[in-house]
Design a protein that fits this description.
Layout (H helix, E strand, L loop, with lengths): L1 E14 L2 E10 L5 E5 L5 E7 L2 E3 L7 H4 L2 E7 L5 E7 L3 H11 L2 E5 L7
Length: 114
């Protein structure tokens, strides 16, 4: 793994009233993983493979067990995103979606196993 920190971070506005700080790049070789940790201690992994990435752990297993819900979301431009939401912060997620005109297409963690 190689970490390329941006100091100072690059700050950009993807939408009015929202500022994102791009703090750096993580370069992973195949079969390397990094874990993102929320302020409340919940964990979400990103793992590199020789074909690309596992962007999340299993949405109906490990993420759900960590207290996350996983949504497939579409914005007003028709772009689709996967968003991982702490269950206790659903009110914030709902407010964000309403303010940004985002629509939950499906809760991936609620899909039945086939």
């Amino acid at each position: 793994m190689k970490l390329a920190e941006k100091s100072p971070p690059r700050v950009f506005q993807p939408a009015p009233g929202i500022a994102i700080s791009d703090c750096g790049d993580v370069h992973l070789a195949a079969d390397e993983q990094v874990t993102m940790v929320t302020a409340s201690g919940r964990r979400m992994d990103v793992a590199a493979k020789d074909f690309g990435f596992y962007a999340t752990p299993s949405v109906n297993g490990r993420l759900k067990g960590e207290g996350f819900k996983t949504a497939l979301v579409r914005n007003t431009a028709g772009q689709v995103y996967v968003m991982v939401v702490e269950q206790e912060r659903m009110d914030r997620f709902d407010a964000y979606c309403a303010a940004e005109g985002q629509t939950v297409l499906e809760w991936l963690d609620e899909r039945p196993l086939v």
